[in-house]
Amino acid sequence: MKRKLTCLLAALGVLMITGTAMAHFMMVYTPEIALHEGQDLDMRIVFTHPAEAGHTMDMGGVQEFYVVKQRGDAAPKKVDLMSYVKEITWKNPESSNKAFTAVIPKKEVRSMGDYVFVMKPGYYHEDEEGIYMQQITKLIVNVGGLPGNWAEPVGLPCEIVPLIKPYGIWTGNVFKAQVLSEGKPVAGAEVEVEYMSHMPDLKSNSLPKKSSVEYPHDSLITQTIFTDADGYITFGVPKAGWWGFAALGVGPETQHDGKEMSQDAVIWIKAVDMK
Amino acid sequence: MKKLMIVLTLASLLAFAGQAFAHSPLMSCFDNGDGTVTCEGGFSDGSSASGVKIHVTDGGGKSLIETNMNQDSEVTFKKPDGAYMVIFDGGAGHTVEVNGADIVE
User: Fold this and answer.
1) Domain range holding B58?
2) Which in A62, A253, B8, B70 has the greatest CB count within 10 A?
3) pTM listed for this prediction
4) How many CB pairs under 8 A join A and B?
């Protein structure tokens, strides 16, 4: 009787953990990524659940924050941005935690071209699963309509490389990208997709409680796509706004501090309605 | 012979039409705050503006500086006193004008 009860409790425990292991999404956010001209970029780095304004997690600091920029076919330039990163407190309706802000001055973003922002956080310990997570995140901004390196791999341990301009997407377009691990395509990688249905308030450093979308089922809060045999995903974009893609466990680092680690690659895109 | 001329004319029209549509010229200028102005150029398909003629004229249209975009599709020149215009001259249909009054740091 005692053994049956223990088994039952264990099973319930597993079910509960599965229910709450919601999509942790690293956000690197700035209000506009298709700019006409250079300007100060107000950016936030937050580890949270953007489709639910849910739990905000301690990402373990920021290890690297830089931009690789290119104007047309000029040589790409890497600029370190760590000096602009400052710690803040992010406040969601039911959860607060450390996050980061970075105001990139116009002088760094004045030229026309592409700006591929890369953020490598520290390690987040997921207590319920007893594993570490690290989501290496890209955000691609364009100034002036002159393209550059948006479709080029940066050379990260793991990354998602777009084949369709991530800042030039109409609602209804198909977004296609390739998942790479140490520069090589990853077949059968699990990619989670989430819509930012709670928009960041940059004055209060928070996500609002109200969602702009109704989610009739959990499988629609965090959608899942698997990469094909050549590492590609395709996704039809149904709504204007921000979409995040997270390729889980595709990075080469699988251990940290003696525990299992999920090193993920994240990219954010923004779609605009045709009027 | 006449037929050949017609075909060749049509073919050349198509060829040029294709090129004219493929890329539009872009130029962005900044006041460097040290008495110089830098302009960067390019085309919307990312192709280089290296060698493109740059005319800097005064408020009346008189030529002040004649120069070219360098290998990096950039040019830096001494900021003129008074009103001025910067003209990116990539040929017919490929020009961009930037008013000096809009060139800021």
Assistant:
1) 23-102
2) A62
3) 0.87
4) 42
